[in-house]
Amino acid sequence: MTYLVAGLRLLAYALVFALLAGPHWLALKFGRGAHAGRAPVWLHRAFLHLFQVRLIVTGTPPAPGEAALVIANHISWLDIPVLGAVRPLSFVAKSEIAGWPVIGTLARLQRTVFIDRARKRHTAVVNTEMSRRLRAGDLIVLFAEGTTGDGTRLLPFRTSLVGAARAAITEGGLDRVRLQPLCIAYTRRHGLPLTRAERPDIAWYGDMELGPSVKLFFERGPIDVRVTWGEPVAFAAGTDRKVATALAEASVRRALQEAVTGRPPVPTPEPASGESASGGSAPGTPRADAPAAAAAPPILIPAATA
């Protein structure tokens, strides 16, 4: 893509933004309605269309209005328009993003929950806000690695903000919250499978500056991205937060491995009959590494142990 073409497409996107941002802001200010949720989706879909990002979505997402916390991997700034184009949702993001040009405005329009990582006590504040939003039926996306990766491997998932699911139960009277694993994988460029050497051109991680990453995106051409909804994890009042997060991480890891390599992961050995994810007995409990059905039921996981 030449800089002239990129510039014209950016201009077209700016026009779309100008048409949608005002009504969307008013919808947010004076009461949520259909436009409050759909306008960001239209904006993100316009971006993907203009810049030739082909989105493939597989799996079963949460039902509209269901209390669901999405646990996802994170590769690039491009993840935001990709996920934002799928359906109405909000993100949890570091507070610095609120001050970024353009991106900060988009984040606020999408009702992003900002967290100040320099303040340890701010996690509790964010969990309370996330809990309130979950009880209201909002779909909240948490990038559980806490940073971006190179797109070929998964970093360990952090568990602290998953506490919002328990807060939604204890403070809001919900029976359970759906933890929804979600995998993002960039798979092709110009229709050809990405090589390991090409993946850093899409990923934005480490000490990379945002400007050069965006420049590479404009220069290198069309991209295919696969978004996979994994098997949901049912989070109840007594659920062990770390076990729940580990199950979500395992689901995302399997989906990422399959998307990157083109091959399903090697099955892990089955444990002894009746053994649960935490080593206890839980007869009839589906395992996290069980083959996914077309519409998998929630995974019921053991309660936290003292």
From TrEMBL:
Q: Which UniProt keywords apply?
A: Acyltransferase, Lipid biosynthesis, Lipid metabolism, Membrane, Transferase, Transmembrane, Transmembrane helix
Looking up InterPro entries in the UniProt record yields: Plipid/glycerol_acylTrfase (IPR002123)
Q: In which pathway does it act?
A: Lipid metabolism
- Transmembrane segments in this chain: where? 6-28
Biased composition regions of type Low complexity, renumbered to the chain: 271-306
Any keyword Acyltransferase? yes
Annotated GO molecular function terms are: 1-acylglycerol-3-phosphate O-acyltransferase activity
Q: Which residues form the Phospholipid/glycerol acyltransferase domain?
A: 68-187
Biological process terms in GO annotation: phosphatidic acid biosynthetic process
Q: Where is this region: Disordered?
A: 256-306
Q: What is this protein's name?
A: 1-acyl-sn-glycerol-3-phosphate acyltransferase
Species? Methylobacterium indicum
